[in-house]
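Ticket reopened. Same input as before:
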Amino acid sequence: MAITTTGRPEAPPGGPRDVLAARRRRSAAHGLGVVAALLAAFSVYAIIDGGFQLYLQRVADGVLNGFLYGMVALALVLVFKATGVINFAQGAMGMVGTFLAFTFAEKWSLPLVLAIVVAMVVSAGAAAGIERVLIRPFDPGNHLAITIVTLALYLAFNALAALIWGFDPRGFPTLFPHDAGDFFSIGGARLYYTSVGTAVLILVVVVVLQLVLSRTKLGLAFRCVATSVESSRLLGIHIGRTVQSSWAMAAAVGTLAGCLAAPTTYLDPTFMDKILIYAFAAATLGGLDSIAGSVVGGVLVGLAIALLTGYIPALGGQFGLGCAFFVIIAVLQFKPAGLLGRRSQERV
Amino acid sequence: MSTLLELRGLRAFYGEVECLHGVDLTADEGEVVVVLGANGAGKTTLLRSVCRLVRTEGTITFGGEPLDGRSTYDVVRRGVSLVPQGRGTLAELSVEDNIRAGGYIRKDKDVRADTDYWYDVFPRLAQRRSTSAGSLSGGEQQMLAIARAMMSNPKLLLLDEPSLGLAPIVVRQLFDVLARVCAERGVAMVVVEQNAALALDLARRGYVLEAGTVAVAGPAEQLRDDESVRRAYLGY
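Engineering reply: fixed in the latest deploy. New output:
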């Protein structure tokens, strides 16, 4: 006994089957088109101004830095997807995780790879505990309260790190060969193994997370909770535990991002703050609920900063933060869902 | 037949406002019970009370164990499944993912077979597997909501106005399928309906809610002949 009619006229054959997906694709293509046009226009100016080789170097630097911003943005997106809240403590959590890796590597002389993995596991566990104790008691619908808890966490982590490790900047070892000669060139632009290795590692993480979210039961629960808390409850999904795993995954990703950023920025209790702001810009640009969008956003923010500060001397070398704010405001004004994000679009 | 669901003196609250004032209701295993009532009588609240989505006083017993004080998560895992009014499908997820989410709590091997079963019942859903649920028509969304609710293999299915916004021919087919499936699998149903004539055909017993209390209760035939029910809900 099959029910074959819905009482609705049949859709014309060949027409778009999935109206929402088609609309989303159009919107993303449109946004990316605008960004590409802006980029192309500025590139022409840049090449005329400083020559092709310098341009290529700046693009390479921007893109590779951008992957790092994208990775922190990814951690923000993981928590946002499951809770609808921006975790302002994300940078500070990554910072503490990086200090842990530093301690494991220096004091206990663990190999660096192992130290980082252990730090990732420890910070995931700690984040799960924090979620249980400080986040879960609040109504998941009360975003403001939870956001303020994350702000408090940010302050607490900064104070804790200052107390334990102090404010003196420290060097952090890198995972990849990093001597002066460890680079390869493309068209005269130098691509250092460290930066390229970082970018590749981040892409691997993104692909793995994307697979986890689209193929596993945990990923299904994530997406259900992100769409509707009440419907998820009615499906027998444990909201608290799902949110908890998003916090744990985000903390691990944040720690890895911290460990990859620390060799170039030096390690102190505030080293992730600037990166977090760039990550906010990246996540906003890519779409706060899009894993792939966070990386695309990160790369674009990295590019924008490298090109604008590189070619407009009036902006000076410190204008990166200004660029980030500009990106955030422009996106919220013209494309609030971000390039690849989806606002909930429902047929009424 | 033993009693599956039993409500005794159920009172429900939204904030300080009391919406149900002491409702008694039972449903046996595999039995179909219909709840009729005007808008605002408390039908939806009744179903939401069983799922622990509103604050209640009084007792709710399911399969001999109390449900009051338990969480929605717990209630669903004990075998209660709700098709909410307005369907509650996850608009951004594909049809396939919605169905998978329906079987989220199951660990047995029959999930795959069950999925195929529901695609056979609703070929429209099979055709639109990878489409996002939000772009389905109203009728398709209702089919999806029912298939999803049944995927958890419930003992008790709560349906909140399944006929809302559907073409009459679809409603008739839908009710036929529901009647057959529930008889086959021994699933009890509590159906809240405006379409009283249809619902009374499906159900064995019925309740009429008025302003948060049970006004009339009895076997379906008796309700159909009841003067006040006829005038208010059947329109003749």
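The domain at 3-79+154-234 of chain B is CATH 3.40.50.300 (Rossmann fold). The two ends of chain B are 34 Å apart (CA to CA). Please confirm and we'll close it.
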